[in-house]
Amino acid sequence: MQEKHLKQKETAQLLGISESRMSDFLNGKRPLNLNLVKQLRDKLNIPANFVLDNL
């Protein structure tokens, strides 16, 4: 998000999730699911292996 200069709210909207869910993912309160990893890859051009390696 920081490298793309996106705020948490903007990222949540882009991924089609609520801000609270985005916050939970970022704070480790909720595990990432495969669908979200795919969306990060497709919509933000973040390699899936980067996301999975940094869980």
Automatic annotation (TrEMBL):
InterPro entries: Cro/C1-type_HTH, Lambda_DNA-bd_dom_sf
CDD domains attached to this UniProt entry: HTH_XRE
Molecular-function GO terms, alphabetical: DNA binding
Pfam families the UniProt entry points to: HTH_3 (PF01381)
SUPFAM superfamilies on file: lambda repressor-like DNA-binding domains (SSF47413)
Domain HTH cro/C1-type, first and last residues per copy: 2-51
Protein name per its UniProtKB record: HTH cro/C1-type domain-containing protein
